[in-house]
Write a structure and sequence with these properties.
Structural class: alpha+beta
Strand content: 35-45%
Helix content: 10-25%
Number of helices: 3
Order of helices and strands: EEEEEHHEEH
Number of strands: 7
Length: about 140
């Protein structure tokens, strides 16, 4: 697996890269997208696209629909569209406190930790998934 794109914008001085999707248009303009992470396995013809969210909200078992809508759009990036197999992954990260231990002057308080709260995978090419988000895109893009 090779990291093809990192859209996490960690380097604030670097201008973000994005992909244009001519097959998905809004107001006549191609949609521009920047997935958080895009991995390619050229030998096996596979692509994995990861969207990362940070939230303390309760997480539905299947995550939130906006994540799957974003990932559906990302699955139209040329590298994914031409791949034999595409997996999209929604990750939710958040804060938790570790447990403190000890007593009195030897007490060590817990620490705030960033942790993975949920990770869910899907195939954006499954007919029901594609049909639902294609129709949703058509509605919101004005078609």
């Amino acid at each position: 697996w090779q990291l093809m794109h990192n859209g996490l914008h960690i380097d604030r001085d670097r201008r973000p890269d994005y992909f244009q999707l001519p097959q998905l248009r809004v107001g006549g303009e191609p949609l521009r997208v920047s997935p958080d992470l895009l991995y390619v396995n050229r030998r096996e013809g596979k692509v994995a696209i990861v969207e990362i969210k940070y939230s303390q909200l309760p997480i539905p078992k299947t995550l939130w629909p906006n994540i799957w809508a974003q990932l559906w759009c990302y699955s139209h990036i040329d590298a994914a569209a031409s791949a034999n197999d595409v997996t999209v992954i929604g990750e939710i990260w958040g804060e938790q406190w570790s447990k403190g231990y000890g007593q009195g002057s030897k007490r060590v308080d817990g620490q705030k930790l960033i942790c993975l709260r949920s990770s869910v995978r899907r195939d954006p090419r499954l007919p029901a998934y594609d049909r639902f988000f294609r129709r949703l895109f058509q509605i919101y893009s004005g078609h």
